[in-house]
């Protein structure tokens, strides 16, 4: 499918395409010491120039392999969410926004939209095993743990174990 991905709005959030002006906020949030070890792309700190390159690389082009900004209604960016070509979902929030249900709200809306738009019977995710809060978010959004593997994060010294998750659309998974 091509064309712009509709901006997603939930009761409390606005998910929109990332823009070049988001690089500073993206670098600050993703490069936070509590965030970077749980995602694959960032270092501590994460240079703004690298965040800008990621925004340019992961912009919406009508295919899988893009990310959106997670914003509060007044426009403040509090995180990012996206989907890889595999397709696996990924997301992170500013620690100041943890514990408020924002991740669950964003993941549910985004996963629903991506699976519908791209007609995906299965959507995957990976979560470092020492990040149980993210696993709880995925479970609350219909993902089931399916296995374990190893993954690398630029903010970790060596590969670490991850839990693998899948979210199936029942009518698609059976056909």
From TrEMBL:
UniProt key word Transferase: yes
What PROSITE patterns does its record include?
GNAT
Q: Which residues form the N-acetyltransferase domain?
A: 13-171
Instruction: Enumerate the UniProt keywords alphabetically.
Output: Acyltransferase, Transferase
- Where would one find the signal peptide in this protein? none
Tell me which InterPro entries the record gives: Acyl_CoA_acyltransferase (IPR016181), GNAT_dom (IPR000182), N-acetyltransferase (IPR051531)
Q: Does the keyword DNA repair apply?
A: no
* Protein family membership: Belongs to the acetyltransferase family. RimJ subfamily.
What is the protein named? GCN5-related N-acetyltransferase
Source organism (scientific name): Dinoroseobacter shibae (strain DSM 16493 / NCIMB 14021 / DFL 12)
């Amino acid at each position: 499918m091509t064309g712009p991905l509709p901006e997603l709005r939930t009761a409390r959030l606005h998910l929109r395409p990332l823009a070049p002006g988001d690089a500073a906020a993206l670098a600050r949030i993703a490069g936070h010491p509590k965030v970077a070890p749980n995602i694959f792309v960032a270092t501590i700190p994460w240079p703004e120039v690298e965040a800008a390159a990621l925004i340019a690389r992961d912009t919406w082009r009508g295919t899988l392999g893009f990310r959106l900004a997670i914003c509060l209604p007044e426009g403040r960016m509090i995180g990012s969410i996206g989907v890889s070509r595999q397709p696996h979902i990924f997301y992170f929030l500013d620690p100041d926004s943890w514990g408020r249900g924002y991740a669950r709200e964003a993941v549910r809306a985004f996963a629903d939209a991506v699976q519908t738009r791209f007609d995906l019977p299965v959507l995957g995710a990976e979560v470092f095993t020492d990040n149980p809060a993210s696993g709880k978010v995925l479970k609350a959004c219909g993902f089931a743990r399916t296995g374990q593997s190893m993954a690398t994060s630029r903010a970790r010294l060596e590969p670490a174990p991850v839990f693998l998750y899948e979210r199936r659309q029942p009518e698609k998974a059976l056909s």
